[in-house]
Amino acid sequence: MATEADSSSDEIDWRSEASSVEVTRRERLNEFYRKRLYEPGLIAWSDMRTRIGLSILSVYIAMAVAAVFGLWRNPSPNQAERLLAPFQTIQYPLGTTQSGVDLLALMIDSTPFILLMVLAGGVWATSLAVVVGTVSGYKGGAVDSAITSISDFVMAIPGLPLVIVLAITLSPENPIFLGVVLTINYWAGLGRSIRSQVLSIRQKSYVEASRTMGTSTPRIILKDILPNIMPYVMVNFVLAARYTIFASVGLYFIGVLPYTGQNWGVTLNNAYNQGGLFTFQALHWLLVPIVTIVGLTFALVLISQGMDRIFNPRVRTRLTGESETVTEENESATTESM
Amino acid sequence: MDYYLKRTAKIPITILAVATLTFGLIRLLPGGPFTQLRIELLQQGVPVEQVNARIEALQNIRPDAPLWQQYIDYLIGIAQLDMGESISLGQPVVDVIAGALPWTVFLVLTSTVLMFVIGVLVGAVQAYWEGSRFDQFFSGGSIFLMSVPYYIFAVIFVFFFAYQFGWFPTGNAVDRGLEAGLNPTYIISVLHHAALPIIAFTIGGIGSTALNMRGNSIQVLGEEFVEVARLRGLTDGRIATRYVAQNAILPMYTGLLLLIGFRLGGTVVLEEIFSYPGLGYYLIEAVNANDYPLMMGCFLVITVTLVVAVYIADLTYGLIDPRISTGDSDGY
């Protein structure tokens, strides 16, 4: 049913939808899964960058699982020899710190915290940006200028200094709350760019058709506009997550955020301040948290670069060429129009 | 002209809003920033009136006045460049900031320009030889650079070039005891101290700039007008600069506005690592010393710097893109 609706003109669209919503709900879900998740996923997976990125990311998820289920020992002082070099013993593969803490245990221990924070930051920043961007781009007029003025103001405040000042006021210790605080004004810039995309989409004939039919604004945004900007949003979700890591580790590193036990940034800070800078023996103490941080951001950047492919209409068309159905031709057309 | 007028009018409004925000934050901060100081002074046996007078001098607002009065006093103070007195340094906040601001601007400006120029050049060459060994190598490199936070470069540089090899200083903006002036010794000292922070900050941004430029250029190279220009027999140099580069840089220039904001904020971590006495450095010092007047002063000035920087960038945008000067900036 949805197939027919998609392939035919907008006039038929509303009629068919009105007549058989009940019957096609499951089909529509299926269709949605295939077109918005499965196919983009396939394209993304065909890209080497995404594959490498996802593989690296799975290592971090494994680390988080290990931490949650206690599969590796907890970090504690004097659990091993001091400043043990990495790759010397199987027991302490990444070596130890100056106070004899197993570095691998340190890294694993803070993974769930960091992942939760990153997820929270990404979800908060992108979802707020999507809401702000779509509403302001689609509604226009007074709503638009109000929202634009507010986001202009928010954009005028530099992120990290604001977070530092807020961190003192709120001392965010919960990872989810911390993620939100870190990206407190990240949404503004992203919202602006989503708005400009929505501005071009709202000119499209099918949106205009929905509007003349009197479809409600939330429905138009949800059904007609959101699916078109989803790939862009996904890429930016990953970039927002990367920003959250950069900001959090940086602020932990300079000691502004409240310490909630050890984590990658705190370890880096300790290594930096407690003599890690002076000898080569302590170099691994600096390098282990660095590699851990860079590994995660590298995975995220690779995934975002790979997902960028979904944007590229030529790649899309090649895939649809393999199975010649009306739907998919149509699909590539919508992608192209983005 | 209407656009420029509107754009200029926005500046005082934004600054007022930010000043209101800092005022609100000072009021909001746990227990009030001066509670601790007041208790300390009272415990030392200082009379109440003197304590109040001292705190008034520190914060440029009277603690016993009603809220609206405090707010107006605060705004008037800022308008007169009076931001109170730093608790930890014992100097007026304005003096501290006046000494720090030029260094931060120098750092951000130099590294952002370098980053932009290098990134654009690399990206353009990559796009021109798309798929070549050079392109593949630098694409991989760019993705890697994008995933390394700038402060990681800073830490590694400090470790090797400052502490291990001793080639560069580990703190300050110039050698101690050097008179400021336009003499070679002074300038060399400044560059020597700024080299590592600038390089670290520049490298961190090259990756995404190059990737953006590459993407935009490839898109432009596929456009018909480039083909037409070739058929017309224009020189490669002219096509590269007037046709491809200009059209590819335009969308990046808008992104640059956002980037300035992130980079100005980023100096906080950078200056702390290099002990470089800019705004960010004093912000952290103030945070660690519970020095609220200095902290809010730094925050306010960083924000105002950003507002001004974006304003300048916005105005120059019209010079690059003639379309913008007639309509408003949002004519997507």
UniProtKB/TrEMBL annotation, chain A:
Keywords from the UniProt entry: Cell membrane, Membrane, Transmembrane, Transmembrane helix, Transport
Organism from which the protein derives: Halococcus hamelinensis 100A6
ABC transmembrane type-1 domain ranges (all copies): 115-304
Family: Belongs to the binding-protein-dependent transport system permease family.
Record PROSITE patterns: ABC_TM1 (PS50928)
Pfam families: BPD_transp_1
Organism ancestry: Archaea, Methanobacteriati, Methanobacteriota, Stenosarchaea group, Halobacteria
GO CC term, one of those recorded: plasma membrane
Protein's name according to its UniProt entry: ABC-type dipeptide/oligopeptide/nickel transport system, permease component
Gene Ontology process terms (BP): transmembrane transport
Localization annotation: Cell membrane
Membrane topology annotation: Multi-pass membrane protein
Spans through the membrane: 52-72, 113-138, 150-170, 176-194, 229-254, 282-303
InterPro entries on file: BP-dependent_transpt_permease (IPR050366), MetI-like (IPR000515), MetI-like_sf (IPR035906)
From TrEMBL, chain B:
Pfam families to which the protein is assigned, alphabetical: BPD_transp_1
Main location: membrane
InterPro entries named among the record's database cross-references: MetI-like (IPR000515), MetI-like_sf (IPR035906)
UniProt topology in membrane: Multi-pass membrane protein
Signal sequence coordinates: none
GO CC annotation, single: plasma membrane
Ranges of residues in domain ABC transmembrane type-1: 101-317
Transmembrane segments annotated in the record for this chain: 12-29, 103-129, 141-166, 186-211, 248-274, 294-313
Keywords attached to this entry: Membrane, Transmembrane, Transmembrane helix, Transport
Coiled coil: none
Gene Ontology biological process: transmembrane transport
Subcellular location: Cell membrane; Membrane
Family as reported in the entry's similarity comment: Belongs to the binding-protein-dependent transport system permease family.
Protein name per UniProt: ABC-type dipeptide/oligopeptide/nickel transport system, permease component
